[in-house]
């Protein structure tokens, strides 16, 4: 092994393994929007397929627009508090993030069908209503932190694994060296991996200390334009067109420190010394999409409403900008510092298309006269139908294979109650359960909600508090099964995350 100098690399590879690894999780993340709804329907657990008469129908079952007998405008601000508790290598941490914003705004125009004077106003088509609304359907804001002491692997093992997989020879002599600007070359430039005739290997010892902090921000949103018809106050048919927007940012900072692995040929400054390196990456994904929603609601009797809706896949066109950087610093055995080794930032831009799953929902609502109502929904979503399209054939094939192997269809359930406590004052409660999208992991989501509503003249105010909880995992790196160090083959440290979201929604409405 030869001592080499740090040099500025020229050129940028088209894509990196770090960038590729994100797609399988991202296509699922972007395929899990919730139904946009007002505070009232959020208080009912989101069960809206059969109920109607709310601006929420635009993004759920557009047939519900047919229940309006007046034009209406609504506006819903929100406050969100996200908490994440982590367990990583036996150590626990917690973090949180709070943010306020606009969740929903929309208007419905009531348009009765003109009929000759003296005719039955409840026969034939009664009204044809139109609506347009904005809904936030996914909130990505969160802060995740975890750390601990790793006795099994170093992130430098991951860098060495990338270098081996690239097939590069000795960077000091080979013309088939590591790709310029790649993460594995950054690791080689900063002495975190080395090369000998047996191949690449890490220069870091075990029992290192690792810390990861991930800041996520952004949202998915949707503008829906829809219409619905009311036939004899029995059958309601509707459709809407959804124009979606996606804006997602993930900022990762990973730090590792420990002792150098002493080996023959190592620079004298590093013998019996310590190291610290920082890996940073920023991912920005933006784009737009389109979908459609069809639905019907039927009233066999006045008290009972039965609903059915279908949401097409959303077809997204997305742009992904990914940047990463790796820097390392060392200290000699006597504690004095060695000058820091740095790398220029590498950026990779790509464009891809995403087709999210379709959704089918059925529901029932029973009206308890003037006392309140009971409503419930069941929804089926097939996550194995997600499709990823890219200009990189290998990545397209790999991501779609991951989708087929990891994800499955699941059922989601929602239910809610509303009771009139006194005149114009209502009390609500709701529950929702989302099944796990994974074939082999039980990652379900549960939400509990409660709310109040008050009507006066042509105005109303609704407020809802919702508590949501779900489990997830995050791995800072994964080492392939072909890595030659059998002690760490196929190993990647994993943080187990317990997520909670506490949300408050406040809807103001006016009928005109």
Notes on the structure:
- 10% of the residues lie in helices and 54% in strands.
- It has 6 helices and 21 strands.
- The chain has a single domain (17-511), classed as Porin (Beta Barrel).
- The chain has helices spanning 17-21, 23-29, 39-43, 155-166, 183-189, 393-406; strands at residues 72-88, 91-109, 125-139, 142-150, 193-196, 199-202, 208-231, 235-259, 274-301, 304-311, 315-331, 337-341, 346-355, 359-367, 372-382, 387-390, 409-422, 425-434, 445-456, 459-474, 495-511.
- It has a 14-stranded antiparallel beta barrel with strand order 1-2-3-7-8-9-10-14-15-17-18-19-20-21.
- With 512 residues, the protein is mainly β.
- Strand 17 and strand 18 (425-434) form a beta hairpin.
- Helix 4 (155-166) packs across helix 5 (183-189).
- It is elongated and about 100 Å long.
- The longest helix has 14 residues, at 393-406.
Key features of this structure:
512 residues; mainly beta; Porin; 14-stranded antiparallel barrel; two-stranded antiparallel sheet; 6 helices; disordered N terminus
Biggest pleated-sheet summary: 14 strands, antiparallel, barrel
**Series of H and E elements:** HHHEEEEHHEEEEEEEEEEEEHEEEEE
CATH fold description? Porin
Counted up, domains total: 1
CATH architecture: Beta Barrel
Overall structural class, as computed from helix and strand content, comes to: mainly beta
Strand content: over 45%
Report how far the terminal alpha carbons are from each other: 80 Å
Name the CATH superfamily assignment: Outer membrane protein transport protein (OMPP1/FadL/TodX)
Taking strands numbered 1, 2, ... along the chain, how are they ordered across the largest sheet?
1-2-3-7-8-9-10-14-15-17-18-19-20-21
């Amino acid at each position: 092994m030869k001592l080499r100098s740090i040099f500025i690399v020229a050129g940028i590879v088209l894509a990196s393994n770090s960038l590729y690894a994100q797609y399988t999780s991202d296509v699922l993340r972007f395929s899990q929007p919730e139904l946009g709804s007002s505070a009232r329907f959020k208080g009912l657990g989101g069960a809206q397929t059969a109920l109607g008469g709310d601006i929420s129908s635009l993004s759920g079952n557009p047939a519900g627009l047919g229940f309006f007998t007046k034009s209406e405008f609504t506006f819903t601000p929100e406050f969100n508090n996200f908490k994440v508790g982590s367990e990583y290598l036996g150590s626990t941490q917690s973090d949180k993030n709070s943010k306020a914003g606009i969740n929903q705004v929309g208007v419905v125009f009531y348009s009765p069908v003109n009929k000759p004077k003296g005719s039955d106003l409840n026969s034939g088509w009664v009204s044809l209503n139109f609506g347009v609304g904005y809904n936030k359907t996914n909130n990505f804001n969160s802060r995740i932190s975890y750390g601990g002491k790793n006795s099994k692997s170093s992130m430098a093992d991951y860098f060495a694994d990338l270098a081996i997989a690239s097939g590069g020879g000795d960077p000091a002599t080979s013309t088939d060296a590591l790709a310029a600007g790649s993460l594995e070359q950054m690791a080689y430039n900063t002495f975190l991996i080395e090369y000998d005739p047996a191949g690449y290997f890490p220069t870091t010892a075990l029992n290192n200390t690792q810390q990861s902090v991930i800041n996520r921000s952004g949202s998915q949103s949707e503008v829906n334009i829809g219409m619905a018809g009311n036939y004899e106050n029995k059958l309601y048919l509707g459709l809407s067109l959804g124009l979606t927007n996606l804006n997602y940012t993930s900022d990762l900072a990973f730090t590792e420190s420990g002792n150098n692995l002493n080996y023959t040929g190592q620079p004298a400054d590093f013998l019996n010394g310590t190291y610290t390196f920082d890996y940073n990456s920023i991912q920005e994904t933006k784009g737009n999409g389109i979908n459609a929603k069809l639905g019907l609601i039927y009233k066999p009797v006045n008290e009972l409403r039965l609903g059915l809706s279908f949401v097409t896949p959303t077809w997204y066109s997305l742009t992904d900008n990914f940047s990463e950087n790796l820097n390392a610093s060392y200290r000699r055995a006597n504690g004095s510092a060695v000058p820091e080794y740095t790398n220029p930032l590498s950026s990779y831009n790509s464009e891809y298309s995403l087709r999210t799953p379709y959704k089918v929902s059925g529901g029932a609502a029973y009206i308890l006269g003037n006392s309140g109502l009971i409503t419930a929904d069941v929804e089926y979503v097939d996550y194995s139908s997600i499709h990823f399209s890219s200009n990189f054939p290998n990545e397209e094939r790999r991501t779609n294979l991951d989708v087929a192997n990891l994800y499955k269809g699941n059922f989601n359930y929602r239910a809610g109650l509303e009771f009139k406590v006194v005149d114009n004052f209502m009390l609500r409660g709701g529950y929702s359960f989302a099944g796990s999208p994974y074939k082999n992991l039980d990652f379900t989501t549960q939400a509990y909600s409660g709310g109040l509503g008050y009507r006066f003249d042509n105005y109303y105010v609704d407020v809802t508090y919702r508590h949501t909880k779900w489990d997830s995992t995050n791995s800072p790196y994964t080492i392939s099964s072909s890595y030659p160090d059998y002690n760490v083959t196929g190993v990647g440290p994993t943080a187990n995350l317990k997520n909670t979201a506490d949300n408050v929604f406040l809807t103001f409405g006016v009928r005109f």
